[in-house]
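Review session, final week

We close the course with one last complete record, chosen because it touches almost every idea we covered. It is Nitrate reductase associated protein, a protein from Fibrisoma montanum with 156 residues. Go through it on your own first, then we will talk.
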Amino acid sequence: MIPVAVDTVFFAFESDFVVSLRCIPMIVRYKLDTCGIKLKLPEWVKLNLAEKDELATRPCCTAADIVAYRTYLSRLVQDRCGHPASELGAVDAVWDHLRDVPDDIQQKAREWHRPPLTLQQWIDLDTLQRFALVKLSRSGHEGRNFPRALDEFGLS
């Protein structure tokens, strides 16, 4: 996976928790996938607001950025939680595949009685928007933010 530099963005559909950062925002989740660390919500809640903000704003694109991000996050987890950070394992960055719209997204759109995304709509989204739709469409995810994200991204 070759990471793409993304701006620190908090989506409107995250607004109910972004001020307190009580949940892990998409920008951090993107960086977690980029650096290969799995951060669980119980670990996230043990971080202070400044640390959470740092994880949202710290760059994680170049090889050096990724190493620095991973090192910082690993130290935080060890210091705050008393155990090593978990490895994420292989990540299939389907948000970077621009040949077709992922099936999970099309299925989630059908579940919410929304029209399927066209390939052009998918391509026109930025990396973080595509990442968010992929994460919001995965089974086991609550999903109520999926239609909010579609609306926010102009896909309604």
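Two points worth writing down before the exam:
The chain has two domains: 12-87, 94-152.
The radius of gyration is 16 Å.
Good luck, everyone.
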